Amino acid sequence: MEKGNATTLDAPQVRRVFRAPLPTQLTNFVGRKLLRLLLTVQGLGAFSLITLGVMLSKFRVARQVVWPAALHEIHRSGVRLLPMFLFISAVLGLVVVGQTVSWLNRVGAIPYLGMVMVIVVVRELGPLAAAMLILGRVGTANVVELGTARATGEVEALEALGIDPVHYLVVPRVVGMAVGLFALTVYLIIGALASGYLWAFVQDVPLRPIDYIRQLAGALQWMDFALLGLKTLAFGFIIATITCYHGLAQPLRLEEVSFATVRAVAQSVIACLIVDALFILVYLSV
Amino acid sequence: MERAESNNNVAIEMHGVDVSAMSDPSRITVRDVNWTVRTGDYWVVGGLQGSGKSDFLLLTGGLMSPAAGTYTLFGQPMPIFEDRRLPERLRLGLVFEGGQLLNHLTVWENVALPLRYHRNLRRSEVLSEVQAVLDWMGLTTWADSTPGALGRSWQKRVGLARALILRPEVLLIDNPLGGMDVRQARWYLQFLDELSAGHLITGGRPVTLVVTAADLRPWQGHARQIAILRDDRLSVPGDWSRIEAAGREIIGELLPQEEGGGALPTT
Lengths: 286, 267
Fold this sequence. Notes:
The complex is a heterodimer. By secondary structure, chain A is mainly alpha-helical. Chain A is built from ten helices and no strands.
């Protein structure tokens, strides 16, 4: 073989590299990670099913204790975060919607404004931003509270008293976060759309409020409302379940709580993005 | 017939039970326990730190399964995890060494929680019952405080109140006098004596007691039956009169004579 015709991959040194077995340490590392991922998925799946099972089978058990606890969680995951969400919705409208409206105006695409807003804000940005904010504010608190309760023996104390820890500690958090996330997402979307229009109005974009509302109403379909509800409830369930799982489902020492919190946040983000991608498939298929 | 009558008096019965560590289920801390507790008994289980007292009590409390052997509570196999058998399980109460109170609840809420949960009651419906227990146990002052504001001795007392609100027939208490000052320890011993004899808090019915201790001296004249955890085994010398016969090498560290018998612990 002439030197000039030989490709880089044919070079003897490169062939040796490609044919050599992977270093044991690398395969061990990948194997460990893969095994850990599978175990985590299995654990999360089992915990989710247990939570759903307890939620349904004990729906009428200890209502005077669990339902007020769920209301408290709705307050914590919803009402108490409303001022922060209103502020963020104003900023979101400013930086995203206001700019979009302004640029659509420059390229003469104002008639598409409603569709763009629905896709960007209602379908994607609103639910995902709300989920990430609630994860940061309430989800992390869940891991710390439950992890500390687990580490200090509070969970064993509940079991000794015949109180199901999943029923008393997890179910109210799941309900509270799912309902709270749905409500806050609606406020976030409305706030962002309104503040975005105000920002565009300040920039003299020739669009009357009534036209803006008509465009939005025209772009929204029944599916958007249904899927928005489903998506936010799913995000709430996922974040609450993952954060409760990492706080509660495995024995923890106090020094491990911070690591559990980091793991819970990372896994919640990944799980929400995967579910979000699945919803995109639904949007595209309908 | 005689056998049936005698079995009716048995609260706790263990045959060949191996106890694993709560933190590491693969590690056996106590082996081959053969032990019978009759209703009305007042046991103290002595053992040095690390002897497996807490694990033994957690198993007896039904929080984990025996690694081997059989354990029954009033004739029912333990542990009980099924909801439909919960009433059987609640015949037994467990008080943890540190009280293990729920830190997000006040003292009043901690004591009321089991009652409200199991009977599905509003706060207003348990006011008088909870208040009575708090009064009896001298906890009214702390009713609105969270556990973090309480000293360790008071936390233990709240843990005891929380267990008693369900009026258990058998009460297990893990190292109740550990870390208590003399006044608190005296109150605790006197209160347990009253429980054993029959207290209004349980409707006048005597409660079967099992306590663990690292120092047996305070329990002389209070607990009536003694068991010793040592070298992974539970030995049962019986009552105090048989202690000497059991040999100083078994109980010497738990009943040090040089420091004076009957002294209340400070650690």
